[in-house]
User: Fold this.
Amino acid sequence: MAKLFKPLETERLIGKPDEAVHLSISDKLTDEQWQAIIHNDAAYDGQFFYAVKTTNIFCRPSCKSRPPNKLNIGLFQTAEQALSANYRPCKRCKPTGQRLPDHEWVASVTAYIELNYMEHVTLNLLADISHGSPYHLHRTFKKVKGMTPVAYIQQIRIGHAQQQLISTKKGIAEIGQSVGLPNTPYFITLFKKKTGSTPGDYRQLQLQLIKEASENGQHP
Assistant:
């Protein structure tokens, strides 16, 4: 019997950043502020904090993390304002002076995976967007979730593939592409490894079970 992996629901961040209450100090990032960010200029620490809207993390200007997309930056005068807008402090530069709890850090990573599983998501990318090292992220993620980031990505992708196999008439290759597994042979191999059957066999079995349940007046 094939195992069913249900796609995990996105772990909601505690108080998702709300543009309506965004307490930015300026409607536009100045060139001086941008230069301070990309050059990690510690002289600007304390003058402002910047938040990255795509990752829900805020930093000091001196943060050594990879520079974010300029269009995704929000500005705050204080760390308290960023926290009030429900951004999380960066684990690397510690803008609040305190260490971000591991479970909150991992929650931000799993939320990113849930929203971007169909893209090319790697451990290095996750480490970059979460402002940590690949080694530390791998170790901490496994401690909190009981599996590695790569295994979690695979679980999410296979779960969404299972849903599509049952609810759509898409071809195997198309489904693999849509869940971030464009190499069809690899998709089939991974699917069988995780569920015990190939995508085609899984679809046939599940549709047969649904048909039988319907004929017996039962809900599938």
The first helix runs from residue 31 to 38. The chain has a mean pLDDT of 84. Strands lie at 49-52, 57-59, 73-76, 88-89. The chain is about 45% helix and 5% strand.
